[in-house]
Design goal:
Blueprint (H helix, E strand, L loop, with lengths): L2 E6 L4 H13 L3 E4 L10 H14 L4 E8 L3 H7 L7 E3 L3 H9 L5 E5 L5 H13 L8 H9 L1
Parallel strand pairs: 1-2, 1-3, 3-5, 4-5
Bound molecules: D-ribose (RB5).
């Protein structure tokens, strides 16, 4: 069974911990890339480490989940890693589309902008969706080839 890579900075720490518990409760195996406390850390460090792992070993990771204050910083950082398609989501439709159309392999969320229950619904929508391929394939290929 594949595992979920999860990580946050201090701004997303509480949300990351909440989602970690929910995911574990659903039987998912997790790899936690930190942070381990609410003390300030540099979000690019966490996002790069998680993104590099997910991009390098897709057979090992179902997806990545990254949280920071807004979800923006970890999204920008993760998307600099080749092979990563990180989607900053604020609603369940976008979370589903991110996988169905964009083949996103990381969802990013804002711990200071998104309530935990909505975030959990988005993570479930993301995990439950499948990439549709077809007309989306050349577009996703273009993203990967850049
Ligand atoms: C940290 O204060 C905050 O800047 C960070 O969590 C994130 O929101 C950056 O995009």
């Amino acid at each position: 069974m594949k595992k979920i890579a999860i990580g946050s900075d201090h701004g997303g720490f509480a949300l990351k911990e909440f989602l970690r518990q929910r995911l574990e409760g659903e039987g998912w195996r997790l790899e936690d890339f930190g942070c381990a406390t609410p003390d300030p850390v540099e979000y690019p460090d966490i996002a790069f480490a998680l993104a590099r792992a997910v991009a390098a070993r897709p057979e090992e990771y179902e997806v990545g989940v990254l949280c920071c204050g807004t979800g923006i910083g970890v999204s920008i950082a993760a998307n600099k890693v080749k092979g990563i398609r990180a989607a900053l989501c604020a609603d369940c439709f976008s979370a589903r589309m991110a996988r169905e159309h964009n083949n996103a392999n990381v969802i990013t969320l804002g711990g200071r902008t998104t309530g935990p229950e909505l975030a959990w619904e988005m993570v479930k929508a993301f995990l439950g969706a499948r990439y549709q391929g077809g007309v989306h394939a050349p577009r996703v290929k273009a993203l990967t080839d850049v």
